[in-house]
Amino acid sequence: MSASLILFIILAYFALLMLIARLTSRHNKANSFFDGDRSSPWFLVAFGMIGSGISAVSLVSIPGNVGNNNLYYFQFILGTIVGYLFIAFVLMPIYYKLKLVSIYTYLNIRFGNVTYKTGSLFFLVSQSFGAALRLLLSVKILQYAFFDGLHVPYFLTIIIVLMLIWLYTNKSGIKTIVWTDALQSLFLITVMIVSIITIKSSLGLSFAGMIAAIVHHPYAKLFDWDAHSGSNFFKQFISGVLITVALVGLDQSMMQKTLTINNVSGAKRNVLTFSFFIAGAQTLFLGLGVLLYLFAERHGIHLSAKNGQFMDTDGLYPFLTLNYFGKIGAVAFFIGVVASTFASIDACIAALTTAFSYDFMNIESKSPTDKNKIKNAVLLGVNGAMFIIVMAFWSSEGAIINTIFKIAGYTYGPILGIYLTGLFSDIRLKEKWVPLACIGAATITLFLNLLFMAQFQFDLGFMNILVNALLTILFLTVIKRKTNAA
Fold it and tell me: Which GO terms describe its biological process (predicted)?
């Protein structure tokens, strides 16, 4: 694929996003950046959240990871559906009843200011790393496919991507993102379908033959019952439930779009519809992963491995697409990468800006002029943080999706523990100890995971979020206030 064609795709796609940004920025209000004027159609939000939920990480990590972990990620997908039910029927009514913009305001109402700031701070740390790692993978693909050929250094590529996102989101924020994410979801689904059809045709398979090839492939194992394995069914399923509640239901970037819907019924429909959209899309990505390895086997393509594990699994899909799938496949994939880059990062940046502005800068009480100044300053700081984290992790290897979920287990675990304590108990807290309780829970979880691996070869896997949340609940119970002091 020529450099001029790639440049045209980037510019044309960006021009389309700018057009949407211009159309949605008309009649803006002071809070449009943060709440989208609470006027978004629920189905549009649900469809658009596919783009945020998939990202470039899912686009390449889920298919690539099949080579080392079979289809065990499907166990996690099953758990996510239960998690979305909890979000729809437990969290949504609370958020709408309290008319929240930053969802962490609930913690202020339920416990107090220190707990509120602690929850928001853990979100800021986790979301910063999660968004930066998604951006890292996207930029690596763009660098490999295009910018290396122009001898553009990777740090400049990072800056270019962040600047493009800033240009179309800085005016209307979440109001624009709801619409651009829907467009980007459409492109992502198209890319997946084009890739599957391309591989099917290349292997000379009918549709039924393709399904049979996937089902009978050695990697087509859905369930792992080994108790010591990090991909054990119960660990994956429970983690799917908890990580979904934490990374979606307690995540400002995902909930902020849902809260732009004007009523709780629409918000519930949005969450339930999105849950089946994303579960279906991720299952298709697993099937695509089997096809990618089958394609490599049939064409005698050597894939580097070490100690029985494939190396650089995130690079498999880009490598095959750009070198073996022809111009149509390459163009479709590149559009998908560009779409997933913008779709997953823009909402995260808007959410980080919203959380910091509301939770730490008290923007709600400011004048419209001051709100705009604060928003722009925070937005600049968020972009700077993204740049620093991506630079720090640039040399990392392996499946980035695993790294994201492991980090999330340590940073979202305390948030999950605080929320569960607030929702299912009536205790009040000695708030000055809350930050220490949360940090202690995360630290002990990390220590336990290292200890179990060293002594028993037992990997907590994504279950670290459960251990972390339970420890947080335990510590919060220890620091509860007596009833007569409430």
Answer: sodium ion transport
**Cβ neighbour number for residue 203 with a 10 Å cutoff:** 15
For the chain, domains (ranges, CATH) are 3-26+33-395 (1.20.1730.10)
For 287, residues 6+ apart whose C-beta sits below 8 A from its C-beta are 196, 214
Please state the pTM of the whole predicted model: 0.76
C-beta neighbour count of 273 within 10 angstroms: 18
How far apart, in whole angstroms, are the C-alpha atoms of residue 251 and residue 245? 8
Q: For the chain, how far is it from start to end, CA to CA, in angstroms?
A: 67
Number of neighbouring beta carbons within 10 Å of residue 384? 11
Mean pLDDT of 33-53: 64
Q: How much of the chain is helix, strand and coil, in % rounded to 5?
A: 80, 0, 20
Give me the phi and psi of 27, to 5 degrees please. Answer: 65, 35
Q: Give 364-369 contacts, CB < 8 A, sequence gap 24+.
A: 364/101, 368/30
